[in-house]
Amino acid sequence: MVQVTPPAGYVTTIGGNDPDDDNNTDSNGYLNGGAVQSHPVMLEFGKEPINDGDTDADSNLSVDFGFIKQYSATLGDYVWYDINKNGIQDASEPGIAGVTVRLLDAAANVLETMTTDGSGNYLFDDLEPGTYSVEFVKPAGYDITLKSQGSDTARDSDADLTTGRSSQITLGENEHNPKIDAGMYIPNTLPASLGDYVWYDANADGIQDSSEIGVAGVTVNLYNTAGVVISTTTTNGAGYYSFTGLAPGNYSVEFVKPSGYTFTLKTQGGDSAFDSDADTTTGKTASVILAAGEHNPKIDAGLFIPSVNSASLGDYVWYDLNKNGIQDVGETGVSGVTVNLLDGTGNIIRTTATDSSGYYLFNNLTPGTYSVEFVKPAGYELTLKTQGGDSAKDSDADTTTGKTSAVTLAAGEHNPRIDAGLYQPDIARLGDFVWYDTDNDGIQDAGEPGIAGVVVKLYNAAGQNIGVTQTDGTGYYEFTDLAPGTYSVEFVKPNADYTFSPKSQGTQNGLDSDADTATGKTAQITLSAGENNPRIDAGMFIPGTLPSSLGDRVWYDTDKDGIQDAGENGISGVTVTLKDASGNIIATTTTDGSGNYLFSGLAAGDYVITFEPPSGYHLSPMSQGGDTAKDSDAGITGSTGIITLGKGEH
Q1: This prediction's pTM
Q2: Which CATH superfamily is domain 428-541 in?
Q3: Which CATH superfamily does the domain covering 192-304 fall into?
Q4: In 212, 305, 408, 586, which residue has its Cα 20 to 30 A from 135's Cα atom?
Q5: What is the SS3 assignment for 511?
């Protein structure tokens, strides 16, 4: 037998499919520790192969070991919001998510495209040694900050203010360069800020009373829209905190309760400056939107130390889909429902609202007799009371008054079984399809694809716009939770090239186009209580052209050379995603039994394809050989470069 230890930086090619069934040229052996070892070879006089490179029947030259170079150079890494526009990454300046970043070769050809993650980071990995540059595509409304400021190349911006491109970077073998960054800002904006108070809620009513004092030393975390902590502070001696110098955008705050403390009731009273905004379980607030220069001083949290003898009760308001009065699997909570706590004589002593999951809680209660009142939202009714045999899964609210029976709490007792079921007796809905009418006959024929991203507007009987949606990746849309009444729908053509198909063709109402060919509007539609009308459709086409399409194959690259060789088979079931040039998903499909896929019915424009390798598979090298119909177009992220389709192009 023969054993070979791979040279540093190389990996074996054993385990792949044999492309030509020629035992004299394949990679032999198996892994044995860090080495590759052949199976035992028996040599016999006059019986050895004569087609293995020599004609000697007494020698065997077919025991081969193939190795390939494993490249691991990388290039990154950060796009940030430069609040003070000084070209330097300062503390508390956040990353920008979703920025398109392109890797270019020495000739400025696009090799790979990706977007920054939730923290603003990006990384191009598994790169060969060579010369590259990076292009940052600034989002709409943004400008690129000053280049090469300060003395720290890891904290400056490397993007040209006009082109967004960095200077060329030369990577050595296995080199990592994490210093290619870009700062961006929105012109003519001022920094924003938020705060401000954590207090001891002595009476646990969720409202800042004049005699209640601040709590010092409470940790407060600031999150960006991706859920990443971007800054941390603590309350001062008076209980106040502040986050300043913030870019306009969405944030949330997390309060970390000290040991022994409990969060007070959320969103109590009528003044948002004097309530508590912290979730009673997580300590996190809802999203806070800050405009340029805005200061929001109303993000507060109340804390208290519960008494060992205090009692509590709760806990759930749910949507009773089948109206049977029982909390069934799949039925969800109803948020924002007003819940009143009544004393033994029926007086309201506290008010709260259900959280995003439908839960509520009244805590820090003295032992005694209480009842609960659920205020049903407009359009809702209370479900049947006291159904089934499980008091933790039924509804306790009177169907007329919304009030429960009296509940007596002992010292330290918690009663989590005071629930209410709601339902909407009159909801209706309508939809559902926009398609590319290839033959312009106004009828949905087999094989005619849906059109993604079409804007659809809903109007009431008075002609007022009351809803807007878009078709999904397959061309479908739906308006739900509608009251019985009269409506109409307007379809908005994606661009001026499109024309509406003839209206009301054929005999099947569910397969025709309902849009007026001039306005895109339908006739009025009357919905009764609970009705679903899924027949409001629109056909479109581009006159004088066929729709565009793109595809087409995922294959097993036996020799890992990035070229589709004869005998290399397609791979079925691979997920393939179509995106626009901004990275928004348009449609998703999977390869068929031969490894082929197709996105059809596309408008002319720019697209990106992303391939998701199955578990255990790796992507072949990109753009090998001289035939673009036979190479691999996916970069190491699985995405292609931008593909521009003309009208009717495939």
Answers
A1: 0.39
A2: Immunoglobulins (2.60.40.10)
A3: Immunoglobulins (2.60.40.10)
A4: 586
A5: helix
